[in-house]
Amino acid sequence: MKDYYEILELSPRATQQQIKDQYRFLLQAWHTDKWPNPSHKTKVVEKTKEINAAYATLGDKEKRAA
User: Fold this and answer.
1) Closest CA to 14 of 22, 24, 3
2) Between 29 and 66, whose confidence is greater?
3) Contact of 44 with 32, CB cutoff 8 Å
4) Cα radius of gyration rounded to whole Å, the chain
5) Rounded to whole angstroms, how far apart are CA atoms 27 and 9?
6) How many CB atoms lie within 10 A of CB 54?
7) Contact 30, 47 (CB under 8 A)
8) Please, which residues have CB within 8 angstroms of residue 13's CB and are 6 or more apart in sequence?
C-alpha cells in the first residue's frame, strides 16, 4: 500500500485544510497542460492518479481515520 502522506508530501499530523491546500497545489503543479512533451504525459497522468487517490482517502475524515 502506498503512503498517501508521502504522495501529498505531508505529515500525518496535517490538518484537513493543509491536506486540501496541498492537494490543490500538487494538481496545479502536475497539470497536463504544463507538460507538453508527449513522453512526459504518461508520468504526469500516473502522478495525477496517485494524488487523486491519496486525497480521496485523506480528504475524507472517516477514511483517513481508518
Assistant:
1) 22
2) 29
3) yes
4) 13
5) 13
6) 23
7) yes
8) none
What tens digit of pLDDT does each residue of 26-61 get? 999 999 888 888 888 889 999 999 999 999 999 988
Residues 66 and 52: their CA atoms lie apart, in Å, by 18
Measure CA of the first residue to CA of the last residue in the chain; give whole Å. 14
The dihedral region occupied by 2, where left means phi > 0, alpha psi between -120 and 50, and beta the remainder, is beta
- How far lies 62's CA from each of 6, 31, 58, 59, in Å? 19, 28, 9, 9
Q: Give 31: exposed, middle or buried? Use CB within 10 Å, 0-12, 13-18, 19+.
A: exposed
Q: Which three cell numbers stand for residue 14?
A: 496535517
